[in-house]
Amino acid sequence: MKKTLLFMAAAMVCMFGMTSCDGETIDLSQFSGQDILGHITLVVSEAQEGQPLAEGDTVALKSAMCDATVEIVDGITVNAGSVFVGTASDIVANGNTNINYPLCGINLRDTLAGTHAVSCPVTDFSAFEYARTGNWAALILGAGMNLGNVVVLAMDEDNYFLGYQGSIEITEFSSVGSLVKGQINNLKAFYITKTQMEALWAMSEEERSAITPINYFQSVTLNGEISSRRANMEDVLNSLEEL
Fold first, then answer.
1. What's the pLDDT at 31?
2. What is the mean pLDDT of the chain?
3. Which of 54, 101, 173, 176 is the most buried (most CB within 10 A)?
4. Closest by Cα among 112, 86, 110, 109 to 99
5. CA 149 remoteness from chain centre
């Protein structure tokens, strides 16, 4: 995963002229504290036992980028939206391109400012079919899925939080190079582990239908803010797709 997300750092430093065409890099520490790469900050409440976030914890994602996305079939746009990716490492202040967990991905089915509801079925496991043979990255990419607006907070390659209720309020969505700003409001999220998913799909359909996600997974509530730099994310999205 670290190797994959180096594309994110490369896209950002190139956009701001922090590296030359022949790959020569310059000291990025001079840009520290200017929110050049944006950020996503999440505050934890209503944390249940059995998951890695505790009441009052703050998840500080020090680098964040986003862009509008489109899916075109036979020359017709069939799916337009925006994708956000935030990581825990402060690329600028550290003067390097190491990406560390946690990592947050948001897939909104819109590119406009406004309030976007987050929802996920809590009465059955239909939504989790999308991540059954893959991982959380498939949920962020969202192509061909009918899940609506999706928020994922990945703790590592196998374990993650998936938002099932709440909203994302985008207050500013401007041109490439600008900061896209907003808030995450009362986002309730399931904590999903690889072990739980393997056990879930080892069950018979009858056994699985007898339980519900809200009783099967631990949960947490997240509130926070988004300040994400808009830039070309093609390499990032392609790399996530290859996971």
1. 46
2. 79
3. 173
4. 86
5. 11
pTM of the predicted structure, to 2 decimals: 0.84
Residue 74, judged by CB atoms within 10 A of its CB (0-12, 13-18, 19+), counts as: exposed
Dig out the tokens for 137 from the structure. Answer: 């990255």
Return the exposure string of 43-67: e unless at least 16 CB atoms fall within 10 Å of the residue's CB, then b.
ebeebeeebebeeeeebebbbbbbb
What is the torsional sign of CA 158, 4, 78, 68? positive
| Closest among 227, 234, 212 to 67, alpha carbons compared | 234
Cα–Cα nearest to 42, from 124, 105, 91, 112: 105
What φ, ψ does residue 98 adopt, rounded to 5°? Answer: -75, 130
| 64-92: pLDDT as tens digits | 888 887 665 565 555 668 889 888 876 54
Q: Are 4 and 135 in contact (CB under 8 A)?
A: no
Q: Which helix (H) or strand (E) holds 46?
A: none
